[in-house]
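Chapter summary example.
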Amino acid sequence: MSTCATISRDLNEPVAGTAATARTWLLLEQSGPWGAKALTSSHLDPELGRALEAAAEGTGVRVALIRRPGRHADFHTAARRQVYAAHVDPRSASTWLHSAVIDDPARLLRLDFTALGKGDHHSFDRALDAAPHTGAPLALVCTNGKRDRCCALLGRPLAAELTAVGEPGAWEVTHLGGHRFSPTLLVLPYGYAYGRVGTDEVRRALAAAREGRVVLDGCRGGSAWERPGQAAELAVRRASGEDRAGVLSVVRTTDAGDDARTPGAAPRWDVVVAHVDGRHWRVTVAQGASLPPRQESCGAALGTPGRMDVIAVRPEPVPDGPGPSTTGGAAAQAAAPTGTRQAQRAAPLSVTWTGFDR
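The structure predicted for these 358 residues follows.
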């Protein structure tokens, strides 16, 4: 029987520009089964789940449940839970991954979600007695078969295999979007998502993360960016050969349409990507339609999922004086030439798209 994942793979549907978007990830361990909307359909108190969804709305924080691979029995006994928060936007003063162990998940409601989404970890540390994560990078594999059977059929064996080969950072996670790209993966601390991965590909991505690098093969994009920015940043990495994490930022995304555009034409954007060394690229990205029609999820009607097509990658002259640039995180900023370390922040992204599983 064909699945959405096998059809997408057979049609060679591109994965770049399809990652879930989040500037900050908040991950709560929850054993037992998960429903399609896990925060409110698991053994987590649904009132708490709804409160967490409301607190995170519009803040740039994405909340997900995690569990260790293996049997998912939940005996409803008191248990200490692992919690992680990761800020992955290199435009901030720093990117980070912090962790805590808690007894009462309601403590998460003490967090300042707005500050967390902007990269301030202090409320997380104070409320949960958290500290910087010092262990292995996290490999989060989507296994929620209630959202799509491909996530269970393909994701759960991958998560189990990662545990079997001794990857200490392996976790199952409730939802990463893009069921048809299963098995799907998110690597923290840097926030890059991957699709159609096997054990070897995951281990290469984790080895790179330990060295502060990004593997491009199978990469769906960095979750810090909206979809056009994800595709643009990956295109710049391929064009420039840059694989270091935290040195590229999407600093501006604008509508590239003009008055001559035919009504109903596909959206197109100009995306400016900046390097901490001062280099800039202008990337033209267009939203295409994946043909022939296929299911975006198992059991769904046939459709033409949106795709991000990179039309051009053009180096730009380095602007004189203060202008749109990137802080690149504290470490990268410190290593950058003095002229690129001026206090700058990117304008908020203003983009639209259709046909994507959020």
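To summarize the output: Confidence is low (pLDDT under 50) at residues 321-358.
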